[in-house]
Amino acid sequence: MNQEKDFSPLTPNIVRALNDKLYEKRKVAALEIEKLVREFVAQNNSTQIRHVIHILASEFALSQHPHSRKGGLIGLAACSIALGKDSGLYLKELIEPVLTCFNDSDSRLRYYACEALYNIVKVARGAVLPHFNLLFDGLSKLAADPDPNVKSGSELLDRLLKDIVTESNTFDLVSFVPLLRERIYSNNQYARQFIISWIHVLESVPDIHLLDYLPEILDGLFQILGDNSKEIRRTCEVVLGEFLKEIKKTPSSVKFAEMANILVIHCQVADETKLTNDLIQLTAMTWMREFIQLAGRVVLPYSSGILTAVLPCLSYDDRKKNTKEAAGACNHSLMKLVTPEDDEDTEEERSGVTGSPSAGEGPPRTEGDSGDMLNASQESVGLSSISFFTPASSDRPQVTLDLDGIVQVLDRHLHDSSTGMMTRIAVLKWLYHLYIKTPRKMFCHTDSLFPILLKTLSDESDEVILKDLEVLAEIASSPAGQTDQASSCDITDNKLVLKVPEGPKAGQQPAAGSKAADSSPSTPSMNSYFYKFMINLLKRFSLERKLLENRGAFIIRQLCLLLHAENIFHSMADILLKEEDLKFASTMVQTLNTILLTSAELFQLRNQLKDLHTQESCALFWCLYRSWCHNPVATVSLCFLTQNYKHAYDLIQKFGNLEVTVDFLMEVDKLVQLIESPIFTYLRLQLLDVENNPYLIKALYGLLMLLPQSQAFKLLSHRLKCVPNPELMRTVEESKYMESKKQAAGKRSSHTQVDYSELLQHFDRVQSKHLEVRHQRSARASDHHDRKLM
């Protein structure tokens, strides 16, 4: 430094001492400066004061010589001490050169700068708050300083500054938050510790309403929660806990909507191997649960994102039990927010400006159209990288349910083969809930959902299948699914167009108020999707025979509980009547017949068929019989069930013309076992009345003659030996027989009589088709065998 340069009012001795390498000499010079400045203060000579500060800053603190910089720092601190309460007038000139030295490469100089700033702040106290951002920025750098002495000095300064902020009621939070939001994303452990400690302090000050700015820093807090340091994580947990307590106390002032997407991001785990991610996810899920309960319908526009985060957590094992429970609570609370009012058109929809399809606006968006949705699975790296759902207006009184987004999320989870069982169940519960609460809007999505709902019937879990059947049953029975409404959503564009078959000639009445073409005449209480469902279900059974073998009876029984059993059997019989795959038709009839005769769910339907008292029961018998003809033994069992014993005997007489195979004999064997079951108790009791039931006995003897000497043969033979007075087993004269049956027939009204001769002709036609198909199959097999030999 040029010793001859004029540094007045600083004396040459002061200048020399400030440049000395010894700390003691620089300290003596600082005392002289303090004395000099006090004189200027007493004289109210601010010009000289500023001149002294300027010299110390420009010629010393910012000098290229390290000892001069050290002298300048201690000199500036001395000025501040001398100024006392008036130092606030000169703080900008005092602080800025000191903060510049925070970046010095010499650790000792950084320590002296920290010491100098401590003295300046200690004197100025609250006057430094207008310069808080500068001080905070400097301190955040020192917090990560590698030198322990510098770190220790910065911690002392940090505590002092926190005390000043805590005592003050003039802290400018608005100007500070942008800096806090920027620094909160630091990856340095010490910087994070510094940041979280300041947030903790600010949050605890009653006059500083940091909660108003929580959306600005919440993402950063969750980033810090994933720090490797246990101490930092614990502090961050405490801070988040305090914020959550305050949110619960004053929910009306909380900006729930602005934070919903941040929670969605952190409710999802990018790397499940990191234990810290589990803590982040659990905390975010806990917050989400509270948000849904406190904010209510305000979160509905964000529901698709919430479900994206929540649904996978429902399949967690006990290692993440707490997260799973929190996710379950979120899911339950969110579902409760959906109400029938969400099925009503919003003002935008009524005026034709809407982002979601309504009835008559064409098909819904598919997954490929969802590019504008939040990709909530992306790893968050800060608020700048977060995509937001944007509601139309944050202060809008009417909250719009994001139905399109929800359906896309649910559909995506059903299509994903890796989705856990509990998640699939939750997805199906959501779909069922939406069809109950918002049926009109949901039916616009039915065509896109229908294939995956049918595919889900092949799920390994019975519980999943049950929920899936509930959804399908609701679709099939909801009034919103009638043809006139459904057609507005382009149902007819589906490849599987609803076909309305001809019903039995015994008159069927359509449901009151519905169009004749809305459903099959066989299913008057169902909508147009019901018959479509039955067609697709049978088609799936045809393509997946193992599904039919393993789950077919289970699925059909459950449908009989969820929908009217008569509708199920009537519609399936209608469809099977036109089935081209005769082998499948026979197998399906056998399955339906077994269900009809053995399942507790079909008790009422069996009673309806037992006596054929009504026109409806006769019509049902007619419909079933025509399809049951695909399987001769099933047809006989249907006749036994409906007490058409003479017709059963006539059918058995025709069995001599059929190809008797091992499978055929096994079916007869099963029928004999069924005759011995409780279902046919009434039939066995009728064997006591030989005179009035001769054709029952002859039909049973016909079955006996068909059977080889097997266990079933012995069982039926033993039963027939128990029939009393064998002489009465001869056939009575036709006139006497008709007279004896007249009283029993009195129970059946005249208009319910069935033309059994026509039924026999139909049986012959169907069996002729089966015989032709078997011959063709045998011929093809023979040709194939001959070609192999050649």
Automatic annotation (TrEMBL):
Residues 334-375, 502-523, 771-790 are annotated as: Disordered. One of its GO terms (cellular component) is PAS complex. Keywords: Endoplasmic reticulum, Endosome, Membrane, Microsome, Repeat. Pfam families: Vac14_Fab1_bd, Vac14_Fig4_bd. GO terms for biological process: phosphatidylinositol biosynthetic process. InterPro entries: ARM-like, ARM-type_fold, Vac14, VAC14_Fig4p-bd. Residues 545-723 form the Vacuolar protein 14 C-terminal Fig4-binding domain. It is found in: Endosome membrane; Microsome membrane. Forms pentamers. Component of the PI(3,5)P2 regulatory complex/PAS complex, at least composed of PIKFYVE, FIG4 and VAC14. VAC14 nucleates the assembly of the complex and serves as a scaffold by pentamerizing into a star-shaped structure, which can bind a single copy each of PIKFYVE and FIG4 and coordinates their activities. Interacts with NOS1. Scaffold protein component of the PI(3,5)P2 regulatory complex which regulates both the synthesis and turnover of phosphatidylinositol 3,5-bisphosphate (PtdIns(3,5)P2). Pentamerizes into a star-shaped structure and nucleates the assembly of the complex. The pentamer binds a single copy each of PIKFYVE and FIG4 and coordinates both PIKfyve kinase activity and FIG4 phosphatase activity, being required to maintain normal levels of phosphatidylinositol 3-phosphate (PtdIns(3)P) and phosphatidylinositol 5-phosphate (PtdIns(5)P). Belongs to the VAC14 family. This is Protein VAC14 homolog. The lineage of its organism: Eukaryota, Metazoa, Chordata, Craniata, Vertebrata.
